[in-house]
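Researcher: Please predict.
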Amino acid sequence: MRAAYRHALRRPSVTSEDVAADLGIPLPEVERACTELTTLGLLREDTRRPSAYVAVEPESAAERVIAPMERAIRAQRAAVETLRGQLQEYGRIYEERPAPGGGREGVEYIAALGATREAIAELAARCETEVLTSQPGGGRRAEVLQEAIARDEAMLERGVSMRTLYQHTARFSQGTREYVERVSQRGAEVRTLDDRFVRLLVFDRKVAVIGVEGDPGAAIIVREPNLVHFILSTFELWWVSATPFPLEWNNQDVADISEQLKQRITLLLSEGLTDQSIATRMGMSVRTCRRHIAEIMDRLGVKSRFQAGYLLGAQRAATRPDTPPTPPTGEQHAE
């Protein structure tokens, strides 16, 4: 494919037959290469010469091919943020919840970790068709994985389909990778996202278990159909934005994920969030977060975190002239 592109660069226009004859490559192979180069935007049809191609500068090809994809990704992220805000509105429901031991139709609050585990185990044992899981916060602890693997393998062996979401940082956890490999071999699908999302499980599209912010032992069990439907819609939006968890990956995969993490950290820096807030949101340690921030500062050519935040904020404001910057509020933002 590279040889065909190099050859096209040497002429005003070229046909597949020209390339095959000049380079001594079989015509079917050249035709496949030209098709792939056209898909990448590196070749375009010559309007003045039927069946001929004209080479395109890679930067122009990237603008034409990648730009629409980037716009779609930005639109998806905007939709994710909108749904995130909507989901947070249900915090009012949590605040109005009855005292532990009480309940109301469709929504149940469980305060104790033991009771939460029992409820999840019971729902998993009764699950018949599908379980959806989102687990933010990076790699999971060994004892949690040990408890989960037996339960999840039992569901998979019964024919239950399983989709699980982690954050990108979970890819660097050996224990989590081993767990993903085991469940993937039994048909589970696992993907990752760069940003934080809500901890939840959904069984048979009828019952959802939602984690309680600030209380890892508590949970909300939702059976109300409209709320469950909303939670499912949110999960599906996360899912289409996520990327598959690779069972095997090379140095380039590691570099790609690291770059995605840096891009997200850059955005959060421009929002004025503290190192601790960014680390929590990204599912990584503060030390790892600060290492990424140091590399970002080095790229920007600045010496202080304040300079980096100011520069990134200015750049972001310049690209969004109609949107005034959001002032820092609360303890999550740096002063």
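Model: The first helix runs from residue 2 to 9.
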